[in-house]
Write a structure and sequence with these properties.
The chain is mainly alpha-helical. The protein has helices spanning about 20-45, 50-65, 65-70, 80-105, 110-120, 120-125, 145-160, 170-185, 190-200, 215-220, 225-235, 240-265, 270-275, 285-305, 310-325, 335-340, 340-345, 350-365. The chain folds into two domains: about 15-160, no CATH class; about 190-365, no CATH class. It is about 70% helix and about 0% strand. Helix 8 runs antiparallel to helix 11 and helix 9 packs across helix 10 (about 215-220). About 50% of the residues are buried.
Length: about 375
């Protein structure tokens, strides 16, 4: 079945309904804006005085830039001026996320208090009036030349300028808080990590009875819910509070869970080799993991179609996730990922188009 035919018509200034037009706007207008924003932060990262912080900042921008590019697809749902603003805040917020992930994951630090203090930068970034804190207070390295503060400032300034952001701010903060909780626990001593993650996720089990604890934990690792809400703050003209609630219900756990489970499925062999935690390995078998991915994909697309405004962009996001991750070269080299690639074919020609577009993106980016 080709799901493009089920996308609801939108206004002339909204997200393109047809996938081909959406991809044209994405490649022609949005990704160049993202590239300029990423180039700006790369130049800033090169000025970081501390050698290790500079290395981690540049590595996160180089190796994880597709995270920011992917987040910026939401800007295709907006006019040009709005798109510029959406790209600025999404690139800055995602850059904070990726940079802090490197600081927690690559510097041989296992102090949960340090991880919590660092991630106050994420919390403050989505609170326009929040004063900055000493984010490196418990970290062995701290001389970043104002790099992290500048990223937080950019988010705060952009969000403060969104007249209606306050209506969805509590939802954004919920996503950010769950994300930070995950990061604080995920990087602690490997001997304690599994039990701590399970106990933390169990506290939310009654709210999300249809998913396993590791599926909840995986879903909290996605920034897509934050980006969808921020985009709605600019592009929704009425009843934003209700739209915010609908976006939260649509994105969590299904779309956010699909995002991170796909991210982990292509890294299974690498994480096994490096001894890193991988949520896919919590499933009893590879077959079970792939079946759950199929469930998340199906429920994600249904959730996207049920969002009453800007439904098209959310459907583009879901099918784009499937195309982007399963077209990765790593997906060709490992059994679970190869089995998961069948999802592309089961979602019809629109998913195939996004798969091909993702291949092109990796060539031209």
């Amino acid at each position: 079945m080709d799901f493009a035919s089920t996308v609801r018509p939108l206004g002339v200034d909204d997200c393109p309904n047809q996938p081909s037009r959406f991809l044209y706007r994405l490649f022609r207008t949005v990704l160049p804006k993202a590239r300029r924003a990423l180039s700006h932060w790369t130049a800033e990262a090169r000025l970081i005085p501390d050698e290790e912080l500079r290395h981690q900042a540049l590595a996160s921008l180089r190796d994880k830039r597709f995270h920011a590019d992917g987040g910026c697809v939401f800007a295709a749902a907006a006019d040009n001026a709005q798109a510029e603003q959406i790209v600025e805040v999404i690139v800055a917020l995602q850059t904070i996320s990726d940079y802090l992930d490197n600081l927690c994951d690559r510097m041989k630090v296992l102090d949960e208090r340090d991880f919590q203090q660092l991630h106050h930068a994420m919390r403050d970034a989505v609170r326009p009036n929040a004063p900055h804190q000493d984010y490196y207070a418990l970290h062995p390295n701290s001389e970043d030349g104002g790099y992290l503060d500048a990223l937080v400032d950019t988010c705060q300034v952009q969000l403060a300028s969104m007249r209606r952001y306050a209506l969805i701010a509590p939802h954004v903060e919920w996503f950010v808080e769950r994300y930070c909780e995950l990061q604080q626990i995920k990087h602690i001593d490997p001997h304690n990590r599994y039990a701590r993650l399970e106990a933390w996720a169990a506290d939310y089990g009654d709210e999300f009875p249809d998913i396993e604890w590791w599926e909840f934990a995986a879903a909290t690792g996605s920034t897509l819910g934050m980006f969808a809400l921020i985009t709605a703050a600019l592009t929704t003209q009425s009843d934003l509070a209700e739209d915010g609630r609908r976006i939260v219900q649509g994105y969590f756990p299904w779309i956010c869970g699909l995002h991170i489970l796909l991210d982990y499925v292509i890294d299974v062999e690498e994480d096994r080799r490096e001894g890193d935690f991988n949520f896919i390995l919590c499933y009893t078998t590879g077959k079970n993991a792939v079946e759950r991915l199929r469930v998340f994909a199906r429920k994600s697309l249904t959730a996207a179609k049920n969002l009453r405004r800007h439904s098209a962009i959310h459907q583009h996001v879901v099918l784009g996730l499937i195309g982007m991750y399963l077209s990765d070269e790593k997906a060709r080299r490992q059994p679970i990922a190869r089995a998961a690639r069948r999802l592309v074919w089961s979602f019809g020609p629109t998913a195939w188009l996004y798969y091909a577009a993702s291949v092109v993106y990796r060539v031209v980016r």
